[in-house]
Amino acid sequence: MERLFTVALEAMDAAFQDYAAALPKPERVRQGDGWNYRFKTQDVYHAVVLKLALVQSALRAALILNSSGYVMEQGMLQRVIDEANEDILFLVYAITNDTITELHLRYLAAFWAEEFGDFDNPTDSHQSRDMVKREKIRAYLARIEGKNPDPSTAVKVTKVVSKVYSGFVHGASPHIMEIYGGDPPHFHTRGVLPRIPEYQRDLANYIYRGLLSHIFAAKLFGSQTHVDTLMKFKQTMEQAMGSDFATKP
């Protein structure tokens, strides 16, 4: 299964590199005493590329954590990936299924906002983002999918799954107890090796949904070649996972 994950991530990355190459490269900008890279254009397309980069990096990190038995930390990352996948669909739908709404504009304003107004004085210039509530994003997704039904199961399960995995991020007792056990029972703070297979199966769902996000992005960027290639790999994953989700983004 781990080999399948690696190949899936390579397929995603091949598509992602083309998406990123379709945009002007980020430019170096002065921020206080240092320099950072920033996109000059701050639109849906650029935001989707950044979110895909987050998904890919987090999936690879989760794979490394899983291989060492750090299942609690894997759960934390999966919570991050949940939201990123939601955000990708939220942004893609604005172009492919709907129009850019006030909610999208508000989301983008918060997304592109810098952390500090004055990088030479970060303590006094920290800026609070006007974040769009997760419930509003999910309500938008439900409205669009209800108006033009999309057979993807990813969004339908995200709300419940996100609530479950938030316990890992916030350190809820039941989630911390995931690393307790053995003979004699104790806290496994150096990895819970016996739980690797269980959480590897869980990670398969996240690799699959990351794949779906890259397929939706392919539609956004008008790349039918990547749609076809990734759809074939999606079917390979379904066969390996023993499930036919009947999804066709």
TrEMBL record:
Protein name as it appears in the record: Uncharacterized protein
Origin superkingdom: Bacteria
Organism the protein comes from: Sideroxydans lithotrophicus (strain ES-1)
